[in-house]
Amino acid sequence: MATPISDSRPSHAGWVLAFLVVMAAAFIRVGESVPWRNEFFYLIRLIETYRPDFVANDWTLQGGAPEHFLFNHLFGALALALPPEPLAWTGRALCWGLNLGLLLAIARQLRLSALGAVVVLVIWMGWGQSLVAGSWMIGTFEAKCISYAALNAAILLLLRNAPRASGLLLGLSFSFHPSVGMFGILAMLPAYLVSGWSRKRLATVLALTLVGTLPGIFAVAPVVFSEHAATADDWRLMTEVKMPHHLDPFTWPKRFLLLLPLLTLFSAAHAWRSDDPGWKRLSYFCAATGIVFAVGVGLRFANAYELLSYFPFRLYPLYAPLLFGFGVADALSKGVRDLPRWAVVVGVLALVTLPDPIAPYIQHAPERLRRTESTSHLTKCYEWLRENTPDDATGIAPPGKDREVWYRARRGLVVCSEFQTYDRLTEWRRRVEELGGPMHTADGRRASLVHHYEALTETEMQALIDRYQPDFIVTRARYSPDLGYEMAFETPEEDVYLPTQRDR
Asked: Given CB 3.0 to 4.6 Å as the disulfide criterion, which of 163, 181, 212, 469 pairs with 172?
């Protein structure tokens, strides 16, 4: 068991200061204007939980969101009191505070200094948190960030020998985000098994883990089969074209794929030389995430696209560099002489191969001081729609440039190209490709969609109108009145068309 940490005032003050520093670093590194990343979709989903009239009629939003059921229903009530931007910032502060506070507590439990923990976390965020696979726990306000907080709390409680609470929070990690939680459970099982607990205690922990997963299981069970009713070709599209940054290791930097095992080797060598059992438990956890990652790479080689839909690359690229950093900080504080020479060589090689952690802060710091609102011509079209069309209007916007519609226009679309609906994946793809043409490559995907859409002939647009009966059309193409639509709002780039007969 780890030696208890002193609760003296200077030590406490040092950790409070450490928390403030890493929160400030998070703001510089990921404090982008709202909406950002998944907030374009997930924040709208959150708002719509208790305010279904926010975007009254939209094909994408009419689908379910079972994987975020607990998150949406727990935090969606905030949207009754807060507009979208304050809601997002409140949630971000909560997610950052929970995750960074828990990571600092883990570092403290491992007997790192406050300074060492701050340096590691600042550098880790500078690296981008996840070296590949585009994951994060410090970023936007969404379900997975709360799920990571539950997982981090489970890790901390494991290190503090509080197994029952650890197991329950591990299960809740699944309920907040099934993909994060599922692989978190698989990774924590070896750490639980090597903790020296009796069979009865282990059974109790696993039972509590199951209890924590029940809300998530009940939410996702009805749609699991419909999600995977999508064809293998649909998931190939997701892997190779729509989300290669999450799902396709063939597109990731090869040096990082080779580097990740080196980080784990160092962490394992450090853990086995430490007299604190917490390091060994973390080593087992990290190794298990690595095994899941390796299985995912194997699935990609086998073109098992449907199995990649479980997102097996979430945890390992995120935790491996973090735990490596903690191990380096601990080794430097005690002297590297306790490590085998090969581990020192591996550690040095890893450090010189990792990306520059400082440049992103230098790049983003000035941006935090001069925030500007979007004033593009497309934004003006969306804002005009909000003021001049019925609340339940549904229309067509340029695929590839349609993610702001819900925020700017508060109007629905026949499809949003940015956000696929997993329970209706084949239909989503068909609708997007009707507007933007076949999606073939990840590079330039958005530009290709826009180019095809803007080149639609009047006959092709008429076919879309006959199918979807849109209440508005946003495009830079020029169409004649024979289409049955007239230009109602014009900008130098995009225009808004409304039906000639307003009662159609």
From this structure: 212
